[in-house]
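Protein Record: Sequence and Backbone Structure Tokens
======================================================
Tokens: labelled as protein backbone structure tokens, with as many entries as the chain has residues.
Question of interest: how does this chain fold, as expressed in backbone structure tokens?

___
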Amino acid sequence: MAFVTTNGERFRRLLAVRWISQGMDGLYQTALASFVLFSPEKQATAGSAATAFAIMLLPYSFLGPFVGTILDRFSRRQIIFFANTLRAIDLLLVALVTTRGKSDLLLVVVVLFSFGANRLILAGLSAGLPRVIDRTKLIESNAIAVTGGSIAIVLGGGLGYGLRAFLERFESLTWADSILVAVAALGYLISALLSLRLKRNELGPTEHELVQAKSVGVVVAGIMDLKLGLAHLRLHRDAALGMIAVAIQRGGITALVVTCLLLERNTFHDPNNPDAGLAGLVQLVTASGVGVFCGAVIAPWAARRLGRHRWIRIALVLSAALVPVFIWGSHIMLAIAAFSVAGFGQSVKVTCDALVQGSIADEFRGRVFSVYDVLVNAAIVSGAGLAALIVPKSGRSVLLPLLVVFAYLLIAFLLKGFSKPITDSVDSPSTIS
């Protein structure tokens, strides 16, 4: 973080909030995956995995149009504080519900609320990032913030797996998962308190940038703002195409994650030994986490040398290169492929986030990120749904990996017209690449 000068302390405070929160995301998701998909009495299928993804993403999809409305009208720091606090309270309810050992509508409702709160937090942190760093260093800042968050998720997942293995010696599996959720609730509360180290309006929006809601309600304002975000993106076609690239890349990864889950649960290990399958999945997640780190390290250098869209194209092609391994690969080969796909995918994400943040004015940034969220979440749900339709219970599929390769290469081809190198003035709205 040496490149951040006068804003270094503010940036570090924002990172603390983000990384602790995302570390708890990893721990929480490990507990949920264990409870829903890796319990001995539950059978994992592509449909059940896709349903789990849909449950996680429903709040993102429905709240997407309104997140920008909220972020462009109220203190983003306050939103992050209250959302984290409410999420900590909700996770205590999740922990209580999971002690019953049943996956029913009540569990779905409390889990939906927790993921909905998470959408506000991450969108608020992304929209506020340009206000606490040197705006000519957005790619590097995103590489640190987003990638550090991804690594925090991996570490949190590993911590959750380790704690669960330890707790199993003393408690039932259901109680072990409930305790993990309660630990995550404590972590979210700590993240909420750390956000208070930032000033109330430090993440924006400032007074002169506030958009007044006037007499319309939140729902109407949300829909209007989503339309405004789309209209604003028409003036920034470069950013729009980058967002589409991220959406397609994330949708493909989701389909491959479902494949990995089924391979580890039902093919590479005895289906009657779900703990072995969970351990194998954790190893793949760890490999992808290392890839995420490496991809983010090379992204700033590659984007400045080659141009943002050109590097996105190259990263998409390199992501597609090892996807065929998912057709026939062993556990070790899948780990190598996970490293590659996740690494180059993170390069795409970091580069595009910087492109959007640098191109879009602050008063529109919340609304544009709402469009971004809706687009990416729709692609993720579509990827999970496609896997549910195509992938058998064993996880072995020829068609799905080939479709992912085709989608990656297609968007890389469509980005062919944007390949100018960037300069230090990357934040000018007129800068194309």
Observations:
- The chain has one domain: 8-205+217-417.
- The longest helix spans residues 274-306.
- The radius of gyration is 21 Å.
- Residues 8-205+217-417 form a domain with the Growth Hormone; Chain: A; fold (CATH 1.20.1250.20).
